[in-house]
Amino acid sequence: MEIFLDTANVEDIRRFARLGLIDGVTTNPALIAREGRDFREVVAEICDIVDGPISTEVISLDAATMIEEARMIAKLHPNIVVKIPATKAGYEALNVVSQEGIKVNFTIIYTANQAWLAAKAGATYVSPFVGRLDATSTHGSDLIAEIVQIFEIHGFVTKVLAASMRNEIYVKHAALAGAHIATIPPEVLDAMMESELTDVSLKGFLAEWEKLPREKREYFK
Ligand code: G3P
Description:
Number of strands: 8
Helix content: 40-55%
Distance between the termini: 40 Å
Bound molecules: SN-glycerol-3-phosphate
Oligomer: single chain
Strand order of the largest sheet: 1-2-3-4-5-6-7-8
Number of domains: 1
Number of helices: 11
């Protein structure tokens, strides 16, 4: 299972890239805007840091302009994946640009039907929004399992990219449900690496270690 970082913050991207944990990055207009920087500059910097798929989203709502924007965005770097929202206009844009070889992450998906129609229309990735779905009292991870099952039954090669991972539990459930990728915000990935019990255990080990006479542990200075 791959991990993408769900952010446009280059400091966070650098930090996790150093840990070797991230295979790609996803952004959306809100995440880019949050950085308050020039769009192209941010995207170029992200592409320099991570050698993997970098999702960047179109901002128009009509198919013709989405297609123009997708072509424009795709030219920014060979690793760019264009995010297109799951609307009727989005399907039209997906159909056109995927035939031109542009990789599309079909996004803001809330139903299994939206996902398999996107796979049929040539999406490289589909992004079900698990956390936002949970917020409407529906099991987001059930949606992931349904999409994974449909893709397996019908032989779609489109990857299921679990998005809106608002806490570590969502990520675990996405992994158990068979998502190919989870796109995870930095704060959630930070939390996934830690356990209070790890800290307590480590503290205990080192306290015992300190009881060994100093000359017998001088190897460590
Ligand atoms: O790419 C952003 C997507 O993952 C949405 O996340 O937490 O705003 O629902 P959230």
